[in-house]
Amino acid sequence: MSTMNMKYVQTTCPYCGTGCTFNLVVKDGKVVGVAPYHRSPVNEGKLCPKGTYAHEFINSPDRLTTPLIKKDGKFVEASWDEAYELIAKKFKSFKPDEMACLASARVSNEENYAMMKFARGVMKTRHIDHCARLCHASTVAGLAAAFGSGAMTNSILDIAQSKCCFILGSNTFEQHPLIGRKVMQAKMNGAKIIYADPRRTPTAKQADLYMQFRSGSDVAILNGMMQEIIRNGWEDKEFIANRTKDFEKLKEVVMKPTYSLENVSKISGIPVAQLKQATEWFAKADSACILYSMGITQHTVGVDNVKSCANIQMVTGNLGKPGCGVNALRGQNNVQGACDMGALPVVFTGYQKVIDEAAHKKFADAWGFPDGIAEAKNGYEVTTMMDVLTAKPGELKCMYIMGENPMISDPDLTHVEHAMKNLEFLVVQDIFMTETANLADVVLPAACYAEKDGTQTSTERRVQMWRKAQDPPGQAKLDWVIFCELAAKMGYAKQFPWKSAEDIFTEIAKVTPSYAGMNYARLNKPEAAHWPCPTADHPGTPILHGAKFANPDGLGVLTPLEWKPPAEVPDAEYPFILTTGRCIWQWHTGTMTRRSPHLEAEEPTGWIEINPEDAKALGIKDKEMVRAITRRGQVEVGARVTPDIMKGVMFMPFHYAECPANRLTNNALDPIAKIPEFKACSVKVEKIAEAK
Ligand SMILES: Nc1nc2c(c(=O)[nH]1)N[C@H]1C(S)=C(S)[C@@H](COP(=O)(O)OP(=O)(O)OC[C@H]3O[C@@H](n4cnc5c(=O)[nH]c(N)nc54)[C@H](O)[C@@H]3O)O[C@H]1N2
Ligand SMILES: Nc1nc2c(c(=O)[nH]1)N[C@H]1C(S)=C(S)[C@@H](COP(=O)(O)OP(=O)(O)OC[C@H]3O[C@@H](n4cnc5c(=O)[nH]c(N)nc54)[C@H](O)[C@@H]3O)O[C@H]1N2
Ligand code: SF4
Ligand SMILES: [Mo]
């Protein structure tokens, strides 16, 4: 075979926040495969299955290739000009506060910045958010309160140096497999691996100690461990005295009889001996890190859970040093970047607050919109948008959604559908026709990662490049180009002058202190750079909080927290806890992985995990179809009877439109982060009559 028309294009994985690098193999101008790129320090040429098959959806015949406008309930193909004319006319007809935008953790920093500027400058709306709300909103709020910065404290490479990894609420080996590899390296270097999860996942199987427990008891467990640490005098007295405040207040709560290991064992279901062993390993290790993800954040007490993780790391002095830290594993490839770019209702780029007059003036001046920008007031979160749409029809009328699929990913889909149908005008910009796009008035076809240059910021704050490997299909356009052209149509060409993604990055660096020292030349190296990177000669910052915390007084804040149960707890009618999450093969709403034959073949439909004792009591057999019912809805789904799930708890992945877990989930929110309680609601399961 001739290799004349073949080339390798180095790029970064479009799936998870680990940020692995690989080569796209391009033949005759089309991507045909993935090949290893060995020089990335993050993954050293290794990939998980999603990275390995990340080429398969790119040239799917289902890609959107032309703008679509809905006429009489049916989509008809339209020219870009027609689509832009219609959108511009509609956007001009609404008041700023009647419009909302969802940005995307799947697209580049440059594209999120472009949407953020478009929302605040062209639409002049303060309502912009994205799926970080459903994901690590608790981290952003909780770690900012504790440390003054809401990001993962240490780096991925650093995890391999730890002497003890405590993983809770993160199925690391399936959801961040190449971070799992670092955990294995730590283990080979003698580290103890402790894992807490209601499910005996592949991560559990690698742990030295696995603690199975009931969803929703994390604060009790962490308080119990802190009580045991303080009782034994294992706390880091020097760190507590010099680097933190409010230890006495924390002590008052964690030393209560409620948090004795005996009582915590009753709350959580973990045997006392295991809690003792975990605490001893953790407290006595020379360095100990925490790895957490959605099991911690997706609760009505998500912020409390995150602050508890911060508390135990401050009490043991495990911060600001190698092998330590609170490692909040960010999920989507660029969810860190979408937050950094200000695709949130309360901040501009780099977490500069919209209500801060100086920051507001800085952006208004830098952008130069003659008629000003959105007012200096916080906007609505995704979850609030849905509530306003259903509870106060007419207040929000129009939404512009880029690269999100809330009709599968938001909690309580009946509620979301009701909300979407209350919109007067919906624009969806995606690479595929999604369940959400189906409800749109206009659908805009976007280019995917393999078709664009740009940057994305991984969970460890490393800003890395995407590089164009092929042209977009049909008339599909780069997301940022769409914003520029639409802005020009609405009279703002001057504010969107960019000719390349690099031009946008240069503007981002100018207005964002933590990115100020970065540019494409620098990011083009295999190691790229970690923010904060304030100046061109700054090396970047793999480990945060070395000498002091980012709070104004430099101290870490210890917060006393009481354990609270989930919003919905099992009762006679709905006797089981339902928790939801993912599997290694599928990605969220499945738009990409379900169009990747190798991935789809592995887990082609959903299931519900049921403990054998519960299944026996219900008369349910393995693989049998059952009906799962909550106060919000019901789905028919196949049973997977397995001892890997705790008795009394059931688990469903949320990837599948044909049996969507989010018909069932509760949209009760954490009061601060406004994140929904995806990880615990109450469910009953019925056998579907044999005759059916
Ligand atoms: N293959 C694949 N990888 C992914 C994704 C994907 O869709 N597919 N999504 C990415 C994204 S955006 C994210 S945010 C991450 C999420 O990564 P993870 O958080 O690791 O994934 P989840 O499956 O949501 O939940 C993790 C674990 O939390 C446990 N859990 C349930 N309830 C509780 C509880 O009350 N407390 C604790 N401590 N644990 C509990 C669940 O049993 C589950 O095993 O994964 C990323 N990686
Ligand atoms: N029950 C339950 N629900 C959950 C969770 C859970 O644990 N349980 N987890 C939550 C979490 S953590 C998350 S992050 C959310 C994820 O929720 P979503 O972000 O809604 O899920 P995705 O399927 O990743 O949707 C991304 C969309 O972007 C599109 N896309 C991909 N690349 C591009 C591009 O370059 N340009 C454009 N314009 N579009 C693109 C994809 O086709 C897809 O439609 O789900 C949440 N929902
Ligand atoms: S671990 Fe994450 S970034 Fe790495 S290949 Fe897998 S999905 Fe991609
Ligand atoms: Mo996420």
Describe the structure.
With 692 residues, the protein is of the alpha/beta class. The protein folds into four domains: 3-52, Single Sheet (N-terminal domain of TfIIb), CATH 2.20.25; 68-134 and 333-497, Rossmann fold; 138-328, Dimethylsulfoxide Reductase, domain 2; 576-687, Barwin-like endoglucanases. The protein contains 25 helices and 28 strands. The chain has a seven-stranded mixed β-sheet, covered by helices on one side. α9 packs parallel to α15 (302-315). The longest helix is centred in the N-terminal third of the chain and has 15 residues, at 109-123. The protein is globular. It starts with 5 loop residues before the first strand and ends in a 5-residue tail after the last strand. The mean pLDDT is 97. One ligand MGD is lined by residues 104, 106-107, 131, 134-135, 294, 298, 331-332, 402-406, 409, 429-432, 434, 446, 448-449, 479, 580-581, 588-589, 591-592, 654, 661-662, 665, 678.
Features:
alpha/beta, 7-stranded mixed sheet, Dimethylsulfoxide Reductase, domain 2, binds molybdenum atom, binds iron/sulfur cluster, 4 domains, single chain, 6-stranded mixed sheet, N-terminal domain of TfIIb, 692 residues, Rossmann fold, binds ligand MGD
- The strand count comes to 28
CATH architecture of the largest domain: 3-Layer(aba) Sandwich
From the 3D structure, determine the CATH topology of the largest domain: Rossmann fold
Give the strand line-up of the largest sheet: 5-4-16-15-14-6-7
If you compute it from the alpha carbons, what radius of gyration comes out, rounded to the nearest whole angstrom? 24 Å
- Low-confidence runs (pLDDT<50, min 5 residues)? none
| Oligomeric status | single chain
